[in-house]
Amino acid sequence: MKISIFGLGYVGCVSAACFSADGHTVVGVDVNLSKVEIINAGQSPIVEPNLDVLIANSVANGQLRATASVRDAVLSTDLSFICVGTPSASNGSLDLQYIERVSSEIGNILRDKQQYHTVVYRSTMLPGSVENVVLPILEKNSGKLAGTDFGLVFNPEFLREGTAIMDFRDPPSTVVGEWTAKCGESVVELYSNLSAPMVRTNLSTAEMVKYADNAFHGLKIAFGNEIGTLCHQVNVDSQQLMQIFCLDTKLNISPVYLKPGNAFGGSCLPKDLRAISHLAHTFDVAVPVLDGILISNEKHKKRVLDLVVAQGKKNIGVLGLSFKEDTDDLRESSTVELLERLIGRGFKVCIYDRNVSLARLTGANKLFIEQELPHIATLMVDSVEAVLEKSEVIVVSNRSNEFLKISKLMNPSQKIIDLIRLFAPEDFIDGQYFSVVG
Ligand SMILES: NC(=O)c1ccc[n+]([C@@H]2O[C@H](COP(=O)([O-])OP(=O)(O)OC[C@H]3O[C@@H](n4cnc5c(N)ncnc54)[C@H](O)[C@@H]3O)[C@@H](O)[C@H]2O)c1
User: Fold this and answer.
1) Catalytic annotation on 268?
2) Predicted structure pTM score
3) Does residue 362 or residue 115 have the better pLDDT?
């Protein structure tokens, strides 16, 4: 394919070198003339292992050249990759001035181009940036319609400096965020040589993925450093500890606990987080990440409460009471807390949880509910249907196949707050389905 790459920094140079080495004809574009000259001299403007060799070869065999001319680049290629910088502004917001400038320049040239051209953004941008900032600029300057007259794609870059070529050639996945399905076709074809899973999605999801990735990378490092600092205080070898930690690919390094939904609770997580934060404070070790976990969980519980209150209905039914499915354990259940707050505010509540139904409870849990939560015990009913009969809003807080029937049984005036994404939102009529997470 014929590809132009705007912005010859780390991302742009690596993309230009790899695409050209794969046999594509690549034109690099930069406003920095010295970068253009360096590339045309067959050299790399950045330090990155093996990049100089790839660039030298591609320039020598005519697969790669650089220019400062947007017109030359857009008219001589079918796809333009945008890899310009998106730095932080002084208040921490994202500075899109380079994106805006390059988009308006490309838009101006698209006005004169007869053939379909696809513009692919690789620069990291907040969700909504391509649709709300880039698309209007491209359409205004070109006088054309995105999707119909030109392609618009967001394709996040996952490379790490230092191993950039390896990462480019062997990414964990390839994400193509497309304005319309037609927009992404040439990009999908371009990456067809990669074995990584190909994900086609909308623009905002593709933009957001990059932020979720980088937030998680930062979180992992900060978490590791806080745990390591605590290890130091208690004479534990942090490297060995983390090796043991990483052996757990069932719960630790795994998709488990990465399903946005309800707040956590139970007999272990809150208690153990309190204990480890307390331990750190006894050593005067600041652990804002560990401290922040319970604070974040409390905020999430508040969001759930606010969502229930915002429905403006008095009769609330709750499906699932224990701290998670398939247990009768109520200790620090976030649903019990929600109920107590609702009851305290005068809501009428009824609850169904097969595992917690009084008739089935024995031993410690029976005693716990009778002594600690007698008021909640009196609100329990014995079927999903009984909850539906009494409630204007139904909160689903645990996963159970038994609850699935409510989407068929609910009447149009009843609302559902699905805390665990048990249902597909589209199974309900407009204004009936609510969730605290997207
Ligand atoms: N560096 C990384 O490891 C990495 C990894 C993934 C994603 N990203 C993202 O990719 C984007 C680029 O990052 P980078 O580190 O390669 O940036 P960089 O600052 O190294 O390079 C940006 C280049 O864009 C050029 N430029 C600015 N305006 C231009 C215009 N109108 N036309 C042509 N060129 C123009 C600049 O002169 C510069 O050479 C950023 O959004 C960044 O967040 C970076």
Assistant:
1) yes
2) 0.93
3) 115
